[in-house]
């Protein structure tokens, strides 16, 4: 199993993504790898200034997949009832405790006492009862082995879900950084150019372009915030997956030690 380390602490993108202030995150490009920066630049080009419809679609596929994934995780949790496994283990322990090996001890008490003791069962009765218990134990053991197989499969499935969740986390992080990069570019380059042009012109349309660009930047900021919320969901999902895995692993180990 994967070591129990915080998903957030172990993630390489957390150095430059702050979850404390979701709407006010500063990009630290020096912490990006060359490959990551290339990805960010490519994603950033998907954002076209003043294309409000395109901005609305930016990262929406990821959010939709993340939503479907969350429902899948919820179904996975709700469909698993580990109660019967515990009941089966308890049943096994109960059957094993019901067998008293001392009843087979023919050395004591004395022959006379065994004959007249109504509380004692005959040797044949004891063997018959032990055979019955043995058959029940075998049946319970088979059930536990099936449970163990299912638990092992679930653990592997949860590993896959964990990796899938981490991929969403990575992709959302890169989209957030790309959007922040575009926002800085518009604020530091495009908007000042339009403002200067409007100041030097008497054309009302130039003034409107400044207002349109400012509104687009505001919408971009809100889009970044929405993506950060989705990223937070991925961040919170990771320990939940590990928690379910740990429960399954503990049960699988308990079954192994019991059979």
UniProtKB/TrEMBL annotation:
UniProt-recorded name of the protein: Tellurite resistance protein
Entry keyword set: Coiled coil
Q: What is the lineage of its organism?
A: Bacteria, Bacillati, Bacillota, Bacilli, Bacillales
Which family, according to UniProt? Belongs to the TelA family.
Source organism of this protein record: Staphylococcus aureus
- Which InterPro entries does the record associate with it? Toxic_anion-R_TelA
- Which Pfam families does the protein's record reference? TelA
Per the record, the coiled-coil ranges are 177-204
């Amino acid at each position: 199993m994967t070591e129990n380390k915080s998903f957030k602490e172990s993630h390489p993108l957390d150095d430059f993504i702050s979850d404390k202030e979701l709407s006010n995150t500063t990009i630290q490009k020096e912490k990006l790898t060359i490959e990551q920066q290339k990805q960010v630049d490519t994603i950033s080009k998907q954002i076209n200034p003043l294309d409000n419809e395109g901005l609305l679609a930016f990262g929406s596929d990821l959010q939709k997949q993340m939503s479907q994934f969350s429902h899948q995780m919820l179904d996975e949790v709700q469909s698993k009832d580990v109660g019967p496994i515990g009941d089966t283990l308890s049943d096994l322990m109960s059957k094993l405790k019901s067998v008293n090996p001392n009843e087979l001890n023919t050395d004591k008490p004395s022959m006379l006492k065994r004959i007249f003791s109504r509380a004692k069962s005959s040797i044949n009765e004891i063997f018959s009862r032990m055979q019955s218990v043995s058959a029940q134990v075998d049946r319970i053991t088979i059930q536990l082995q099936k449970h163990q197989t299912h638990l092992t499969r679930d653990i592997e499935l949860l590993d896959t879900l964990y990796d899938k969740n981490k991929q969403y986390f990575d992709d959302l992080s890169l989209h957030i950084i790309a959007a922040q990069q575009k926002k800085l570019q518009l604020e530091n380059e495009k908007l000042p150019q339009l403002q200067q042009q409007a100041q030097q012109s008497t054309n009302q349309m130039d003034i409107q372009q400044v207002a349109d660009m400012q509104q687009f930047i505001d919408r971009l900021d809100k889009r970044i915030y929405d993506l950060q919320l989705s990223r937070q969901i991925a961040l919170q999902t990771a320990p939940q997956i590990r928690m379910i895995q740990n429960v399954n692993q503990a049960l699988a180990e308990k079954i192994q030690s019991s059979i």
